[in-house]
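Consider a protein example.
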Amino acid sequence: MALQDVVTREYTINLHKRLHGVHFKKRAPKAVKEIKKFATLHMGTTDVRLDPKLNVQLWKRGVQGVEKRLRLRISRKRNDEEDAKEKLFAFVEPVFVPTTKGLHTVVVEDDA
């Protein structure tokens, strides 16, 4: 896999198994950390940025009511800042779907 390419993919992340056994008051913050870890694993960049809409989606049912599964669109983009440590960063945003059942990872082509 060439790390230099800019790519956008849609994933379904199972937060239920990643938050199993986590204290109620730490579930939403842990979910944020797990999403960042997931994006780092799949995109190969340590610079992961979350869309504010994703934060609202995670926290809308409170600190302990995090959804079991979320559909995410993760984009690997070029970092245009001059003093950047990495050439690429991952941007994670939510995809609003009626149900996450039966959805597979897809590469999104329309992103330019």
In short: The radius of gyration is 14 Å. The mean pLDDT is 92.
